[in-house]
Amino acid sequence: MFNEIKTHEITVDIVILTIKNDALNVLLVKRNNEPFKNKWAIPGGYVRMSENLDEAAMRVLKEKTNVENIYLEQLYTFGDPLRHPVSRVITCAYFALIRSEDVEVVTSDDLAWHRVSELPPLAFDHKEIIEYSLKRTRERLEMCPVAYQLLNEKFTLTEMQKAYEMIMEKKLDKRNFRKKVITTEGLRELNEFSKSSSKRPARLYTFDNIKLNSKRAHFIKKGSKG
Amino acid sequence: MFNEIKTHEITVDIVILTIKNDALNVLLVKRNNEPFKNKWAIPGGYVRMSENLDEAAMRVLKEKTNVENIYLEQLYTFGDPLRHPVSRVITCAYFALIRSEDVEVVTSDDLAWHRVSELPPLAFDHKEIIEYSLKRTRERLEMCPVAYQLLNEKFTLTEMQKAYEMIMEKKLDKRNFRKKVITTEGLRELNEFSKSSSKRPARLYTFDNIKLNSKRAHFIKKGSKG
DNA sequence: ATTTAGATTGTTTATTATACAATATTTTTG
DNA sequence: CAAAAATATTGTATAATAAACAATCTAAAT
User: Fold this and answer.
1) What does the pLDDT read at residue B6?
2) Which of A72, A84, A98 is nearest to A46 (CA)?
3) Chain B residues with CB-CB distance to A44 below 8 A
4) Quick check: B195 CB within 7 A of strand C?
5) How far is the C-alpha of A209 from the C-alpha of A188, rounded, in Å?
6) Fewer beta carbons within 10 angstroms: which end of chain B, N or C?
7) What is the pLDDT, as a whole number, of residue A62?
8) Do B222 and A217 touch (CB under 8 A)?
9) In CATH, what is the architecture of A145-216?
10) Would you list the domain boundaries of chain B?
11) What is the third-level CATH fold of A2-142?
């Protein structure tokens, strides 16, 4: 009985989100072992005895993306006895928001970004975990402008609005969005303009890493056009 | 190495909150084993191989309080290597909101309600877990009227307001609170009145268990008087 | 009948959210 | 060089919600 209790295994799995090619993407690895061999999965690994859960998650994140100091949050712990077909593995899921320009991902047949809107079949309960991370990201976006964690350091307001629209899965009104966003603490207007566009260049903005004022916590509401 | 990874133990610990004697109370058990022998702790237990985390939490809850079908939510997973002084125990913390009238707790020297404002020294990181559960309860209260989970089936608006004030840790305006609360879906006015008071009896209300309209999600904001 | 303690109720103002379209700027094209 | 094209930028009016604030009502006790 006592032994029975002790044979859980515990892992961390990380939903790594970024914006790439105008779409929300998640980093997936192709499993090269059973179970679910050759299926895609979110990156993960066993928690070592010497590290806490955050550290384990950061380690896995760094292994896969070589990024540190980014938005990483514990998401939920999934512990269904049948989630792993062979042994009892409880996983503490995290999610990370990163800038694609910060990432050094050597994509290959076994490690690649996938649009969250076009996910391949996934191992374990990883589909559920990704969906939950999207829900949580939406909740965070209602509280504070975490979207800037997904954007490059310098971004246009149109890029930011597109990020919001992708995460919230609805269209926002341009004027209301801009009115709202410019009141956000930390957003700083630059005297630089985008160059890539073939038409009128857009002003670039950046986020200073300021603690966000709780008064402005509710950022984009669910039922509005922004 | 592989064996090293596998020797985590995983438990669930549950912050059980109720309102009792006009105060927010948490159910604590006195430990009769080392470590932390004779210290108070929140109820918990090992996760069995056959049950998922919710089931483990519900089992522990039922063992201690004999209640079922109440508000139970996964809170956070705590996995610091040093949180348990002897072995590596990762705990998935839950919190429950219950009605004191529903509970059959045989309080004793080893099992008792404690005001959250007057907690005794606690085992492990349980103080941190309780504090986090209070923070989460506040967040939930901003989203929906979960406070009714803590109140008896029939309650007065004054009782409800007191519950809010305890959880939000601030005074609310009586008129604004009532205006707000009566727009809540599910709240039903009864043709019954409180009897205990020695002065003017107050009308009783109850909550019908309706799915709450997301339009009315934001319930009591942080920075207001209600 | 009066007192007492708590219950109940409304209005005004400020803030925030929403709906909605015309103008400005730069590049490209003819 | 003028016109067209594409995207960026901006404001106002209305609706909804939040906030501040105090007098009256009611049943029990005296």
Assistant:
1) 53
2) A84
3) none
4) no
5) 10
6) N
7) 94
8) yes
9) Orthogonal Bundle (1.10)
10) 2-142, 144-216
11) Nucleoside Triphosphate Pyrophosphohydrolase (3.90.79)
Q: Chain B: residue nearest A6 by CA?
A: B9
Q: Across the interface, do B47 and A90 touch by the CB < 8 Å criterion?
A: yes
In chain B, which residues have their Cβ closer than 8 Å to the Cβ of A4?
48-49
Strands (E) across B5-164 are located at 9-20, 23-30, 40-41, 44-46, 71-78, 89-97, 111-115, 155-156
Instruction: Report the pLDDT value the prediction gives residue A196, as an integer from 0 to 100.
Output: 72
Mean pLDDT across chain A, nearest whole number? 89
Q: How large is the average pLDDT for residues B133-144?
A: 93
Q: Does the pLDDT value for residue B213 go beyond 60?
A: no
| A contact residues 76-105, partner B, Cβ 8 Å cutoff | 76-81, 88, 90, 92
**Residue A16 pLDDT:** 96
* Multiple choice CATH, B144-216, 1.10.10.10, 3.40.228.10, 1.10.3720.10, 3.40.50.720: 1.10.10.10
For the cut 60, the answer to whether the pLDDT of residue B215 exceeds it is no
* pLDDT at residue number A219: 67
pLDDT digits (tens, 9 = 90+) for A198-226: 789 999 999 987 554 444 445 666 555 54
Mean pLDDT (whole number) for A157-185: 95
Predicted TM-score (pTM) of the model is: 0.92
List the one residue out of A160, A139, A157, A165 whose CA is nearest residue A149: A160
Query: What is the predicted pLDDT for the residue at B116?
Result: 97
Shortest distance, CA A89 to any CA of chain B (angstroms): 10
User: Residue A19 carries which side chain, given as an amino acid letter?
Assistant: I
Amino acid (one-letter) located at B176: N
Residue closest to D28 C1′ by Cα: B199
